[in-house]
Amino acid sequence: MSIYHEKQKWELCALHALNNLFQDEHAFNKQNLDELCQGLSPGSVVNPHRSMLGLGNYDVNVIMKAVQLKHCEALWWDKRKNMANLNLAKITGFILNILSPLQFGFVSVPIRRKHWIAVRQVQGVYYNLDSKLNKPSEIGSAEELRTFLGSNLRHKGCELLLVVPLETEADGSWTLQT
């Protein structure tokens, strides 16, 4: 099985993160996410959930609604908690919101902007599926995943969403804590 990896276009990192997470190029498209934005703010002239220019830059509310369309929930991870408490077998994947250098083609400028990336397991190995990477980056084992996530969460402005099936969210089995 090959790993599906969408590459960055415009400000569509949320779209790429969702498709990479679900390993399906047809999971979502720009029109789907724009419609979710409209549903979140019906009748608004300037939609607060995406870029004013219509190039993407979707916010967390759009991601959370999109994930629900796939019968999953996106849960905020409390950075103060220990990563060892994650029941990885019950988690579909992860979406991180990180600060990333702004790039124009091959030129990187010293401005950092929020960027959505997906992380998930494929055939027993965890991968960073960041759409700005040329190809998926192998993270490795469960312990290496916990280290990767913890390292990212130590950076200012980084947030983590756990994507879990609806039944896992309902019964709380995504965590090993009781």
Describe this structure in words.
There is one protein chain. The chain has 5 helices and 6 strands, in the order αααβββββαβα. By secondary structure, the chain is α+β, with helices and mostly antiparallel strands. The chain has a 6-stranded antiparallel β-sheet with strand order 1-6-2-3-4-5, sandwiched between helices. A hairpin with a 2-residue loop joins strand 3 (107-122) and strand 4. The longest helix is centred in the last third of the chain and has 12 residues, at 142-153.
What is this structure, in a nutshell?
With 178 residues, the chain is of the alpha+beta class. The chain contains 5 helices and 6 strands.
Task: Detail the topology: elements first, then pairings.
Elements: H1 13-21, H2 30-40, H3 60-69, E1 72-76, E2 93-104, E3 107-122, E4 125-128, E5 137-140, H4 142-153, E6 159-165, H5 166-171
Antiparallel strand pairs: 1-6, 2-3, 2-6, 3-4, 4-5
Poorly predicted sequence stretches spanning 5 or more consecutive residues: none
Number of strands: 6
The amount of helix comes to: 25-40%
Q: Beta-sheet strand percentage?
A: 25-35%
Task: List the total number of helices.
Answer: 5
Strand order in the sheet with the most strands: 1-6-2-3-4-5
Give the overall average pLDDT: 86
Distance between the termini: 36 Å
Structural class: alpha+beta
> What shape does the CA trace take?
globular
Largest sheet: 6 strands, antiparallel
Radius of gyration: 16 Å
The SSE order reads HHHEEEEEHEH
